[in-house]
């Protein structure tokens, strides 16, 4: 296979990839961080599976899917991310996975402290604050320095661990949805371990977009989506618990369909989207055949750098995400410094240039416009974006 960096610039190759998808209509989508697109073949497989389940109903599900096929699908997922099948359990999405991990983490006592930052997903912040009401713990929230650097991020957590010695648990977002900042997870995890702090990792935007190894990073608890950069149908996510730490997460609300030694007891037992799960192996196969996260990351970073390098130093534009290759991915945010209302600028990008983007609020550094190319985005699309930003600034 050609070097991923060289292939990332090969517009002809990526056009053959784009041909696997139905042509887009309407505005140019630069908000691919919400959820990804299924290829034509995955859509067709998904539709066939819907028809099969609708026809066979519980006969197939009870006799085959629950007893065999679902276990094989779980094993294929685990193999894709390099973990044991017994360490993953399917959920509807990353939020469900993270909420299950947070509410069922059983090592907290009244008076302990838990940590969040301004860049965490709102659902995660809400779940950590729920712990305050129901477990009697104190929630500590830190704001990261802007602009962020590798050292400033580590310093933020080092200072928090020293200042708040009762910290026992923290949320950490691998790829922040607000700005696209990639957290130095392994370095932060090493610091957290020194201070006896467990991490629950939000990997919603990371899986499929960047390469990582959970064990090497020192992560024991994590939640992920499969509908963003893997290309699976909506309603698919999963949680991960390192096997040696399973006992630190209680079965969900007394879940008894599985034994306490089974990770699947850590999520609510319900009827899943079976046709979507049946289509996951094909989505995983297409992900691997393309070159996996390494190939996708190279392409998305290339597209990101096309527009960022063209506008970063222009007056009137602030790119919120650093250029340290350890700290960025395809998702990057910016704002117009001469315009107070970023939502108004999003509307101008749409109405005047047919470019669809989204405002993200909640970061201590202020609102920004999130720009996320997809795997069918072209270099020409980035040139159009660059022209629009330059003219609107």
TrEMBL record:
<feature type="domain" description="Aminotransferase class V">
    <location>
        <begin position="58"/>
        <end position="366"/>
    </location>
</feature>
<dbReference type="InterPro" id="IPR015424">
    <property type="entry name" value="PyrdxlP-dep_Trfase"/>
</dbReference>
<keyword id="KW-0663">Pyridoxal phosphate</keyword>
<protein>
    <submittedName>
        <fullName>Aminotransferase class V-fold PLP-dependent enzyme</fullName>
    </submittedName>
</protein>
<dbReference type="InterPro" id="IPR000192">
    <property type="entry name" value="Aminotrans_V_dom"/>
</dbReference>
<dbReference type="Pfam" id="PF00266">
    <property type="entry name" value="Aminotran_5"/>
</dbReference>
<keyword id="KW-0808">Transferase</keyword>
<dbReference type="InterPro" id="IPR015421">
    <property type="entry name" value="PyrdxlP-dep_Trfase_major"/>
</dbReference>
<dbReference type="GO" id="GO:0008483">
    <property type="term" value="F:transaminase activity"/>
</dbReference>
<dbReference type="InterPro" id="IPR015422">
    <property type="entry name" value="PyrdxlP-dep_Trfase_small"/>
</dbReference>
<keyword id="KW-0032">Aminotransferase</keyword>
